[in-house]
Amino acid sequence: MTTSRPSGQRQTPYYEDVSPGTGSLPARAWTARTDARDLSLNGTDWRFRLSPSADGQDDAFVRDGFDDSGWAELPVPSHWVLHGHGSPAYTNVPYPFPVDPPRVPDENPTGDHRRVFDLPDGWPAGPGAEGETLLRFDGVESCARVWLNGQELGTFQGSRLPHEFAVGPLLRPRGNVLAVRVHQWSAGSYLEDQDMWWLPGIFRDVTLLHRPPGAVTDFQVHAGYDHTTGRGTLRVDCEPGGRVTVPELGLDLATGETADIPVEPWTAETPRLYEGELATEGERVPLRVGFRTAVVEDGLFKVNGRRVLLRGVNRHEFHPETGRAVDEATMRHDLELMKRHNVNAVRTSHYPPHPAFLDLCDELGLWVIDECDLETHGFLALKDVTNPVDTEEWTPALLDRAARMVERDKNHPSVVIWSLGNESGGGRGISAMARWIRERDPSRPLHYENDYVYPDSDFYSRMYLPHEEVEQIGRREEPPMGKPEQDERRRTLPFILCEYAHAMGNGPGALADYQRIFETYERCQGGFVWEWIDHGLPKRTPDGRTHFAYGGDFGEDPHDGNFVCDGLLLPDRTPSPGLVEFKKVIEPVRIVPGAEPGTVKVTNGHDFADLSALAFTWSWQIDGEAVATGRLELPEPAVAPGESVDVTLPAPPGSDRTGETGWTVRAELAQDTPWAERGHTVAWGQVPGPVAGNEGSAGPRGALMAPRREDDVLRLGPGVFAPDSGVLRRLDGLRLSGPRLDVWRATTDNDDGAPWQPDTRHGPLWRSHGLHRMTHRTDAVEADGDALVVRTRVAAAASPLALRAVYRWTATSGVLRLRVSVEPEGDWDFPLPRLGVRLGLPAAYGHARWFGGGPGEAYPDTCAASMTGRWHSTVDGMQTDYVRPQENGARTDVRWAELTDRPGGEGLRVEADPAPFWFTARRWTSEHLDAARHTTDLVAGDTVWVNLDHGMHGIGSQSCGPGVLPEHRLDVGPAEFSFVFSTLSPDGSGVQGAQEA
């Protein structure tokens, strides 16, 4: 199929046509099921042939009798590049083909799909058959041409949108031949530059739908809620007409008729749905009605009359094995994880999701920004090329995409905002979409971020702004961006960060600092972390080990590396430390010390729900070990949204134990919910208690022992030192290496930052100063009374900058105390990655126990979720397997740590003296970690390397956002810190009193 051109010119093939396509029926509402018959054409019965170009094969495969026995088998839904036919490719912004819209290269991988199927018995088929049958494609990337039984049905573009064809007269009871030709590149590809793997194929469902005479053609549910009266209004428009019943509300009304009744409203916190039915002459359609009203008024986004705070995530559809072919079980798992981690909103970046996802959002309760299948990011940095969103010839395609989203998803109460697309600039096409949507569905506000005059958006929306600017916006004092009248209008709009806190690798940092602003200024209504999941694809090394791959690992050029791995879930859906931190930061209940000693303040941060669904518990700890627990009763009535109450904690139980004390108070689900079981922790807080007994320094007590030289070593108490370097070699027979001053960490993605970032990127700066190759020089090893003093200079080649480190060792019987004093030399006008000591001990000592922050990793600006307690783990279990290896695994505020050869076995104990330290243990050095590009590059050696850090630089989110805030920087200056070292004998205690990390 081609589009005619004047004589002598090349005819435009359909896949380069900017129109939406041919033959598709108008868009309509999606329903999961009705009483009409349907037939799924998903499965493994598809045959597949790949051609390197769009015109590489003829159309013979569409006919009966074609021999496809030599073709491959390919499941549908799927992406052919994930089944050994070609390779995936990742770009963030650049198009992976020459930019010459709407043209695409001759090298255009094209997949022919063929399926022969029979109809179920009794299915009306052929000319004159009762009713009609529709063939529905829910998602094909990026352009498809379709035939049924040799008859061409049409073509379509719009990869993440539904397309239906009327096929009833063409069907026969047996031997139907469905043929689909799919092109990887098309004119539509210019509208789909959405920061993800380019994955061609039929990746969503293919279904036959019988439409009996009198069946529903389309319908729309209007279910509003008046918060001033507590009443809902219901009207269902339908073609053809019929009746609507909602038994629970006693409703039985004609379509088009309005009912006004008392109802419980739908919200993301209380997702109340009423079961109903729409019945026409030919079909019965189940309804799930949620009454709610979403508006922008008084400069705020409100649902049911109340300001809403969005604790959101951006969600691409992704599974490491199947790409964007995501099944319903995975969708439900994702939403359950979101709910368990206090996420209340989803932006469907950057396209409408599989429609079943929105059904689940209705059921489980999430606010949804439903985003159109549109992004032209690759045009924004190009000159002399017109962006398609600002041309008349592309506008019909944009309107088609908007219509297919709105019509498909209009009946979901969870969808409270329509989004016109992402990072496409401004233009007449965007404005045309906005006008159409406003006229078609005035019940929802519109969102669009990428036109900073905001002619088409009901929100002031930005990405990755620094905290300071967000705070200015909260005060409606942001810098001018346009004409005075445009600035004036923008300052009346509610503000959201549609993307923030770039979750790439270790991070994001400073989430708590953002949340403080959101909870301070009513205009700042939250945001959506970028993004939900790392898009790592499994790949095997030559020796059979599996790792997750990212851009460039499949030989593609151009590519954007591991920028595709920037999620709160690791690719296998393991929650990252970033998600655990996010859960804590956004928890809807705040539990903090009360105004009086022995009290706790509980604040309800929900927008709609009181605290009656939660049960509160307390535990009393001494030195991190729980010694008593109980139920904490809150006063009646239940604490309303936005309200607080001070609750008296029980008197600490009597104990003869001494040590650091405190309460941990938890808010837990009182009953099972669809997304978590009873007892699931929603929020928690810790309240320090009085000191139980004496809590002095952990330093050596008793008579100090003097250093002495024996043979070729120095001895001090239980320690054996190298006489030339003063490095500790043994402690009570335990072989050690170090400790020595260490300032390096394997740079994180946020340390390295993005090349376009205007602020200083510390990862490259650290390397330029040689911090990754610091050398040590011993200037003196000397006795000073009862102390062994080692004076050193730590510096990098070709640099005048240095750190003078003095190690002062003292000992009593069985115990060594180390005091490290650090003085900088030179002009250190940048922060350090870390400051502490590193030591090594034999690989057998792979079990860790500590009293301090846990269970997971934490850094200065990612430590909100760090709970003080006693924890245990293996050294291997302390690691976070980021797709690109980088600094990870630090535990904060550690009072003491132990490394043993087995639980309760022999090993090393390190105590704070007196200030807590950061504790990290791994089976490779920071240098090995820094050199690795994939997890399979890390091979355990014969040493466990331990970092004991006095200070650590923050994380930030400079991979695509602001860097580390000043209060979280590790600036260089004189420092002094101490540790106490001793050995452990087997005591059989195992991990008694410690929680698993």
How many β-strands, per DSSP? 66
Strand order of the largest sheet: 53-54-55-56-65-62-61-58-59-66
Strand residue content: 35-45%
| Secondary-structure class | mainly beta
Helical fraction equals: 10-25%
Query: How confident is the prediction overall: mean pLDDT?
Result: 95
Description:
The protein has 997 residues and is mostly beta strands. 10% of the residues lie in helices and 36% in strands. It contains eleven helices and 66 strands. Strands 53-54-55-56-65-62-61-58-59-66 form a ten-stranded mixed sheet, with no helix packed on it. A hairpin with a 5-residue loop joins strand 40 (589-593) and strand 41. The chain is globular. The two termini are 61 Å apart. The model is unreliable at 3-7 (pLDDT under 50).
What structural keywords apply?
mainly beta, 997 residues, disordered N terminus, eight-stranded parallel β-sheet, 10% helix, ten-stranded mixed β-sheet, 36% strand, single chain
Break the fold down into its secondary structure elements and pairings.
Layout: E1 2-3, E2 12-13, E3 21-22, E4 38-40, E5 47-53, E6 72-73, E7 89-91, E8 107-117, E9 132-137, E10 140-141, E11 143-148, E12 151-157, E13 163-166, E14 176-183, E15 192-193, E16 196-198, E17 201-202, E18 206-211, E19 218-226, E20 231-239, E21 243-246, E22 251-254, E23 258-262, E24 274-279, E25 284-289, E26 294-297, E27 300-303, E28 306-307, E29 310-314, H1 328-340, E30 345-347, H2 355-364, E31 367-371, E32 375-376, H3 395-409, E33 415-419, H4 428-440, E34 446-447, E35 460-463, H5 467-474, H6 484-490, E36 495-500, H7 511-520, E37 524-529, E38 537-540, E39 546-549, H8 577-585, E40 589-593, E41 599-604, E42 614-622, E43 625-632, E44 644-648, E45 661-669, E46 681-688, E47 708-710, E48 713-716, E49 719-721, E50 728-731, E51 734-735, E52 737-742, H9 749-752, H10 762-768, E53 774-784, E54 787-796, E55 802-812, E56 815-825, E57 834-842, E58 847-854, E59 867-874, E60 891-894, E61 896-900, E62 907-912, E63 917-922, H11 926-931, E64 943-952, E65 975-984, E66 995-996
Parallel strand pairs: 15-32, 29-30, 29-37, 30-31, 31-33, 33-34, 35-36, 36-37, 59-66
Antiparallel strand pairs: 1-2, 3-12, 4-18, 5-6, 5-8, 7-16, 8-14, 9-13, 9-18, 10-17, 11-12, 11-14, 19-20, 20-23, 21-22, 21-24, 24-25, 26-27, 27-28, 38-39, 40-41, 41-44, 42-43, 42-45, 45-46, 47-48, 48-49, 49-50, 50-51, 52-57, 53-54, 54-55, 55-56, 56-65, 57-64, 58-59, 58-61, 60-63, 61-62, 62-65, ...
